Amino acid sequence: MAIEVDVVIIGAGVVGLAIAAEVAEQGRSVFVFERNSTFGQETSSRNSEVIHAGIYYPEDSLKSKLCVEGNRLLYELCQKHDIPHKKLGKIILAVSEEEIPWLEKIYEQAAKNGVNDLELLSQADIKRLEPNVEGRAGILSPSTGIIDTHSLMQFFHKKSVEHGTEFLFESEVVGLDKTSDGWKVSVRDWEGISELSAQVVINCAGLNSDKIARLAGIENEEYRIHYCKGEYFSLSPRHRGSVNRLVYPTPEQASLGVHVVLSLDGMMRLGPNARYVDTIDYKVDNAQKEAFFESAKRLLPFIDSNDLQPDFAGIRPKLQAPGEMFRDFVIEHEDQAGLYGLINLVGIESPGLTASPAIARLISTMALDIIN
């Protein structure tokens, strides 16, 4: 094992990239292994690209704390480094009277999480802000926005490289073995299997994060990833400009519900739904179109089914199984399991994009404490 590094990061999605940039900036040697041909090819590039405010998550959860902090850090980052984004705001709608109590609960939850800029909306308020949208009542979240995720990942990648990080693409980690002073990492690429040693291993493998944890010797059913597919349909360009903000229904158990997403160029999309699947498959099932249309028409009465076209799909790495309630991020230094120097990040789904700079700060501190 000729190569010795301070930190190995497994996975070059937005969270792995953010951590690499943060750790490398502290003067530590970092290697990032990614099994795909470049960074951000999975969950990070197949999502709504929303900067979340931190409204929905239980108080004191990692999702809540890291989302609220990440929201602030991400806007600062975007403004300082000219990363394309828009602070559009979003409206959460109660379409029926029965949904209004849910809105009030969301408002109270947000306040507990430290999100204090929400505004309760009457039907008249909604019509004033978004004349084409239907709702009995609503919540305005002014600090919700959208971001060009690829530009954000490019920024983290460039910053990492400038601070000496080595990225090894088409390289799959196939072995993690604890040694007396760190970890032996075995990696397979086109040349075969090679080994290096690291003081700290950070598992940011997204859809494969449970498998990487098992490689290191952790057999924990609580870490099991459930693939949850989210599909998107685009809306006809003739409706461009019909809404100026993101529009969400009152949320469902598995997801935030099919909502109206805007891209930076003004294109409107509907999605994502939430369907648990056994295999990774990015095809959009056109049979879902009618369900999308029925969900969206409650919010956007001006659309018809011919306005919807299949767009793209992503897979969420969920910890909660079908029918299960909320599960928080797993962010764990596994020293209690006798695996000092292994940091697992498992189940980093939404709001992982928003939380990425906050997660990076947290993990960088953990890694430096281990090294020191």
Question: Would you write up a description of this structure?
Answer:
- By secondary structure, the chain is of the alpha+beta class.
- The chain has two domains: 4-46 and 150-224 and 326-371, FAD/NAD(P)-binding domain; 90-142 and 226-318, D-Amino Acid Oxidase, subunit A, domain 2 (D-Amino Acid Oxidase, Chain A, domain 2).
- It has eight helices and 20 strands.
- The strands form four sheets. Strands 1, 2, 9, 10, 11, 12, 19 and 20 form an eight-stranded mixed sheet that branches. Strands 13, 15, 16, 17 and 18 form a five-stranded antiparallel sheet that branches.
- Strand 10 and strand 11 form a beta hairpin.
- Helix 1 packs parallel to helix 5 and helix 2 (62-81) packs across helix 8.
- The longest helix has 20 residues, at 62-81.
- The mean pLDDT is 96.
CATH superfamily of the largest domain: FAD/NAD(P)-binding domain
How helical, in percent, are the residues?
A: 25-40%
Assess the beta-strand content as a share of residues.
Answer: 25-35%
Low-confidence stretches: none
Helix/sheet category = alpha+beta
> Rough shape?
elongated
- Helical segment tally? 8
Radius of gyration: 21 Å
The H/E string reads EHEEHEEHEHEEHEEEEHEEEEEHEEEH
Largest beta-sheet details? 8 strands, mixed
CATH topology type of the largest domain: FAD/NAD(P)-binding domain
CATH class of the largest domain: Alpha Beta
The total number of structural domains is: 2
Q: If classified by CATH, what would the architecture of the largest domain be?
A: 3-Layer(bba) Sandwich
Distance between the termini: 22 Å
Please, what is the average pLDDT? 96
How many beta-strand runs?
20
